[in-house]
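Re-run requested by the PI after the first attempt was lost when the workstation crashed. Everything re-entered from the original request form. Ligand of interest: 2-oxoglutaric acid.
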Amino acid sequence: MKKSSQVAVVITALLAVLLLVALSTSVSLPAATRFLASFDLRWPFQERFECLSLSYTTEIISLDPLLIYIHGFLSPQEIAGILAAGEDRFEPSTVYRNGELIQNPYRTSSSAGLPDDDPAVSCILGRARKFLGTTLDPVADEMGIPQLVRYTQGQHYDLHRDWLRVPQQAFDGSARVFNRPASFFAILQDNCTDGETWFPFVEPVRPRDRGELWRRHEEGGLAFKPVAGNALFWVNLFANNTGDDRTVHAGLPVTGGLKTALNIWPRKYWDSIDPE
Ligand SMILES: O=C(O)CCC(=O)C(=O)O
C-alpha cells in the first residue's frame, strides 16, 4: 500500500475510535481529541533517523599542531537531522570575555546549542567520541554542548582559539575545571561564496594546494573551503595540557549565501586549576 493510503487508513481509523469513545463514554469529544493528539501520529510514517556507521576517510594536513581533514564525516541524512534539531534555536553568537558570554563584533554569526538527546546529534557525538580514542576519559570527560554556527552575507569570526586560557569551572557545582583538548568543525551547508576557515600558523605536511578543498592563504597558513559533509579536526592542547597558540583560526567573511557548520568542543576535566 502507498504511504499516502496508509496515512488515510490510519487517520480514518483514529477518527472512528475517537467518535466511538466519545459516544460510548462520558468523555467529551474535545477531551478525546486531546487524548489522541498526545500521541505522535506521524510515528509510523515519519522518516526514522538511523545512526549508521559511516566510512569517512582522513587526511593528515599538519602533524604539529595535529590537524586532520575528514572527508565525508556527515551523511546528507545526518545533516538534515542535525539542522532540524537546531533550526529553532539560533541566536546571535557570543564569545567568552572575563568569564562572561557577550556579543562582540568580531563574531557576527548566529549560533544554536544542540540537544544531545536528539538521535542525529547523539549519533555524531558518538562518532566524534570514537574518533578521539583515548583522548577523553570514558567516565570523567564529556563531549560538551555541540553548537551550530550560521553565517550570512558579511558575517565572520575573527582570529580566535577554541581552548580556554583559564580552564572553566565545571557546571555541575564540583570543584573540577575543564578545557577543550581538541575541536571538530563540520560543514552542514556550503551554498555560500568565500567563508573559508583560516589557520594562519598551520603548515601542511606536504607543500601542495588542494584547490577545491584548501589553499595556501596569502598571509600565511591554510584556508579551508566550506564543503558540506566534510570536517576539520585539530588538537588544541599540548601534552602538558597547556594551550597551543598555533591553533588560532578564523571564519573568513561569507560574501554571499549561507554557511552553516557544527562545532564540537570536547571537555577534559581536572580536579584543580593546575592542569598538569
Ligand atoms: O566559521 C569558521 O570557519 C570557523 C568557526 C569557528 O572557529 C568557531 O565557531 O569556533
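Saved to the shared folder this time. The chain has a mean pLDDT of 87.
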